[in-house]
Amino acid sequence: MATREEVTKLAALARVRVKETELDTFTSEFDSILAYIGQLEKLDLPQGRRGEKPALRNVMREDGEPHAAGAYTKKLVAQFRAREGDALSVKQIISHE
Amino acid sequence: MSKLNELTIEEAAKQLRARELTVRELWDACEAAARAKNPELNAYLEIFDADEVAITAAQERIDAGDASLLCGIPLAIKDNILIEGKLASAASVMLKNYTATYDATVITKLKEAGALFVGRTNMDEFAMGSSTEHSAFGPTKNPHDTSRVPGGSSGGSAAAVAGNLAIAALGSDTGGSIRQPAALTGLVGLKPTYGAVSRSGLIALGSSLDQIGPLAKSVADAHLLYTAIKGSDARDATSIPDSLYPAKEVRKVMRIGVPRHLLTEGVDKDVNAAFTALLEKLSDAGHTIVDVELPTSAHALAAYYVIMPAEVSTNLARLDGIRYGHAMQGATLLDDYIDSRTEGFGKETRRRVLLGTFVLSSGYIDAYYKKADAARSVLRAEYDTAFESVDVIAFPTTPSPAFTFGEKSDPLSMYLGDIFTITANLTGMPAISIPMGTVEREGKQLPVGIHFTAPHQAEEILFAIGASVEKVR
Predict the structure, then answer these.
(1) Confidence band, pLDDT 50/70/90 cuts, at residue A60
(2) Which SUPFAM superfamilies does its entry note (chain A) (predicted)?
(3) What is the rounded CA–CA span in Å between residue B36 and residue B310?
(4) Considering only residues 19 to 78 of chain A, which have any Cβ-Cβ distance to chain B shorter than 8 Å?
(5) What domains lie within chain B, and their CATH numbers?
């Protein structure tokens, strides 16, 4: 059973907020989804398959410059919410006090 | 003669070359239909103004005898595929102000082929949903019955093509998001082999599941579009070279595998009847129908709803309102993140981010994520085994026709509708939905689809069986 506290904790970990008014529905919906995917716990997979890794292959490429320096700078900088020149402005996170 | 916007790609290309039609006339017909019908259908989030340069260039290429059949063809593009200089919002408040800084590889290829873009189409936010009701910009309506959903998440692309607001469209498919709306709107929809089409420039949902593919009025059109967009790409390391998997023979007489054990419950009676009737016609046409067993399929949906949210929570972690996207200002940097994401993401998106965070958290990762991943391997092995004795595997694309708005308000009931389509995303195999007739609901004839899965990189087998369906249907 999922609790309101657990959902609130998960939200904090995921950097989102579940509003107080949504918390009960979120918790009960979460419960029914978890009950459904919980069938996996009982699923008995054939021997030797439990730890099977998916088919993987390495993809290599030559080192090199993918594009000329600055080719996209103007377009990317245009999306910033705040900037100084071509630098992105963010809140100070280390205090000097 | 049908109206210009009702033409297929093949028909339009033929008329353009026969000088019975100009690129301008074809564009005008599609743009006019889009502007007239979009207020009701909400298929497009934005209809683009005519690109005079592209229209003139396409006409010149056709006049010079260019072979590209997509030249001058107006297409609709799902709003999670980047077109440089255009907004690409993925139908989310989070990206409603985001302008694409480059072209997706599929867009580069379509531009090279001379195709035109009518607009960007509505979808469930970040492609999470099966009805287009989770768009931040209002739901899209099904052209066959506007009280019903067009399916999703590529519901805008499906409604645009089915309503003749474009000649064909691109969508993306993570768990059925091309094939399910294609089935519910009477179109052909293809999810290519994982890696067959580059994902560069596709806003990521589940990176091990996502593929871009066509929604079209005919199998031949879907084939044309697929051929234009496929190919390995240095910008997507998961894209694959042409012959990575062993080549499969395209037989004239196909062995069609049917997992009857999956169809005993949960499928509407008349949908099952339409499926059985079509199989009989295919059998009459010489194809062989064979029973196949795919026991782990029963757990595929549970595995999918672990793997997909896990990838969602990871992929969407990059959206924090700092470098681009919806930006809120709080007291601290942490508040900036939380406020931007809480306001930027809709309810379903937040639900799946939470679910993904849960299944990946310490203490649960073994019980859920690793188990789901193992089930995925077993499922793929079961399909590989089945394909030793059959060419394709068939079932109905959806258990039911299009449902009404709000009918599946409980998230789990919405998820259960994906039960047939998700296996192809988990196994990475190509799959196609083709119209198989209609069923009646409240006096309206609603389309339903037949679904075929083929071995990896055997798309040609899907086009061949699709052509057979179109012939016998």
Answers:
(1) confident
(2) Glu-tRNAGln amidotransferase C subunit (SSF141000)
(3) 41
(4) 22, 26, 29-30, 32-34, 36-41, 43, 45-46, 49-54, 59, 61, 72, 75-76, 78
(5) 4-229 (3.90.1300.10)
